[in-house]
Design brief:
There is one protein chain. The protein has 13 helices and no strands. The chain has about 220 residues and is mainly α. It has 2 domains: about 1-85; about 120-215, Tetratricopeptide repeat domain (Serine Threonine Protein Phosphatase 5, Tetratricopeptide repeat, Alpha Horseshoe). The longest helix has 13 residues, at about 20-30. The N and C termini lie far apart (about 50 Å). It holds the Pfam family PPR. This is Pentacotripeptide-repeat region of PRORP domain-containing protein. Keywords: Repeat. Belongs to the PPR family. P subfamily.
């Protein structure tokens, strides 16, 4: 539908705006035609259809990461510089997430450090991605390090970020540490939600601590 609408605009001599261009890119990527999306983005930039902006590049990078083409996503990231634009925290966070999902932790760290060198401020989403990506595979030390970085940079965590770390702690079987972190959430003014409670309930259940399960209910 997005493709048809875009083509109709061109046939009628209507110059597509940024929204139309980006919608077309999303459509092609959702169809899985990354090669066509790649060519389309280059054509739009060449014709200056309001496409030489960071949004269209970020859309392509996100789509390529989602279909598993990390190498081409990195190519797009480099292309941003060549076209005179500057990647933002969204660009970096998207690629960092893709690296973490592939278990390429060193490259994720390299990109995070590159963000800092370029004076880009990691967002709460960036830290969620880093903490979750490490904690879920048992890399708790690294997850806690990023949590510490977050605190040092005055980025206030949200309940999702805290739950990512809590999940990792529970998965590692560290129930006492999980309770300590749970209490810290409350002390820091981040009320645990139902998922926070569910993680503690499930871990206590696994350990046969039924009294604790009842207390949490």
């Amino acid at each position: 539908m997005a493709t048809a609408t875009y083509d109709e605009m061109l046939e009628k001599g209507i110059k597509p705006d940024r929204y139309a261009c980006t919608t077309r890119l999303v459509g092609e990527l959702q169809l899985g035609d990354k090669d066509k999306a790649f060519r389309l983005q280059e054509e739009m930039v060449a014709k200056d259809h309001n496409a030489r902006d960071l949004i269209s590049y970020n859309v392509c990078i996100d789509g390529l990461c989602k279909v598993g083409d990390l190498e081409r996503a990195i190519e797009f990231q480099r292309k941003i510089f060549r076209d005179g634009l500057v990647p933002d925290h969204v660009t970096y966070t998207t690629v960092i997430r893709a690296y973490l999902e592939k278990g390429r932790f060193k490259m994720a760290k390299v990109l995070y450090q590159e963000m800092l060198r370029k004076k880009l401020s990691p967002s709460v989403v960036t830290y969620f991605v880093l903490i979750h990506g490490h904690a879920k595979v048992g890399r708790l030390q690294q997850a806690f390090q990023y949590s510490g970085e977050m605190e040092k940079r005055d980025v206030r965590p949200n309940v999702m970020t805290c739950n990512a770390l809590l999940h990792g702690i529970c998965k590692a079987g560290e129930i006492d540490e999980a309770y300590r972190y749970f209490r810290k959430m409350e002390e820091d003014g981040i009320p645990p939600n139902k998922y926070s409670y569910t993680m503690l309930i499930n871990k206590n259940s696994d350990l046969g601590k039924w009294e604790e399960v009842v207390e949490l209910y």
